[in-house]
Design brief:
This protein is of the alpha+beta class. 31% of the residues lie in helices and 17% in strands. This is CBS domain-containing protein.
Length: 154
């Protein structure tokens, strides 16, 4: 399930495509969580979009691996599909940065895939917002909401 939040308000701020990282590494659902973890280490990232047939179908995070595999005592050869999150919140490349910050806060996520027609075109992180002086308030507010206790992962 993809959730695009576009409120129709014309804004003078940047769109997310001006801040997002475009060099995005992806994994397939068939790859092992160990392969995903190695990529996370190599790329110094905490999440990787999961792509099948060119379309995003999930996201695997360091937290997913920790809670759904390591804590469960399963082996590192477990496929990504068994640990990935599939209830996705994504951004559109035309979204306003303020909308992205609200989306992150609302869904308590630090990183969002930026998706156009089901294909990953970038990633935006809370740090990307914090690095831009004009968005530091939004980043701080989003981080406060992200840090609130939420339901445990299933």
């Amino acid at each position: 399930m993809f959730q695009y939040i576009m409120n129709g308000v014309l804004s003078m701020s940047q769109s997310v495509n001006q801040l997002m990282s475009t060099n995005v590494v992806t994994v397939s659902p068939q790859q092992s969580i160990q392969e995903a973890a190695v990529l996370m280490k190599q790329q110094n990232v905490g999440s990787i979009p999961v792509v099948e047939n060119g379309q995003i179908c999930g996201i695997i995070t360091d937290r997913d691996i920790t809670l759904r595999s390591t804590a469960a005592g399963t082996a590192s050869s477990v496929p990504v599909r068994d640990c990935m999150s599939t209830n996705l919140t994504v951004a559109s490349p035309t979204m306003d940065v303020h909308e992205v910050a609200q989306l992150m806060a609302q869904h308590q996520v630090r990183r969002l895939p930026v998706v156009d027609n089901g294909q990953v075109v970038g990633m935006v992180a809370i740090g990307d917002l914090a690095n831009e002086a004009i968005y530091q308030n939004e980043a701080g507010e989003a981080l406060s909401n992200i840090s609130l206790p939420s339901n445990e992962m299933k």
